[in-house]
Amino acid sequence: MTVTESDIVELDRIAVREAVRVVGLAKESDWERGTPCAGWTLRRLVAHMTAQHLGFAAAARGAGHEAANWREPEDMREPAGVHRVAATAVLAAFAEPGAVEREFALPELGGNFPGGRAVGFHFIDYVVHAWDVAAALGVPVELPEHVLDAALAVARRVPVDPARRGPGFAFAPALEVPAGSGPLEEALRLLGRVPEEWPVRG
Q1: Which residues span the domain enclosing 40?
Q2: What's the CA angle centered on 85, arms 79 and 87, to 5 degrees?
Q3: Burial annotation 150-171 (CB, 10 A radius, 16+ → b, else e)
Q4: Which of 27, 103, 136, 153 is most solvent-facing, going by the fewest CB within 10 Å?
């Protein structure tokens, strides 16, 4: 499947809205749960997600080089609400006319990137992070098949260089993909997640 610049903003919107939905399912007792992101509680994961939304929104408007725009919020007493506001901000930034034609400064990724490619980075992050949150809560992630197919296409292009995978990086080393895996499972395993360790609870 080929993901074009004209597709990527809409695909990202769907992934971000699903992430907002699953974050909104968390109860007060859930925020200290572990997650597929090693060493991160659900509260810490959602703080990271919030910071990434704000950073990408700033990058879409030419201010991605400013470190302050990537900081995690200090007040995470209401994680779902804080995350929802940040998600709204990034979707608005990406929807601005010409956003995908701009260059985004993404310091954590080491430089500047064409807007369409940068939105693609955000898209695959939010497919995976939506799953991370859902996995921590023991609920299914709900994304349309065409979104999962697009996510797999992007995941297959993520560099597998061991020097760019593991602690401190966005993704763990890629894992073997069993024959017959669906697009979500394949994408997750290519990005170092182990879906079978996080079953959906009845």
Answers
A1: 5-197
A2: 95
A3: bbbbbbeebeeeeeebeeeebb
A4: 27
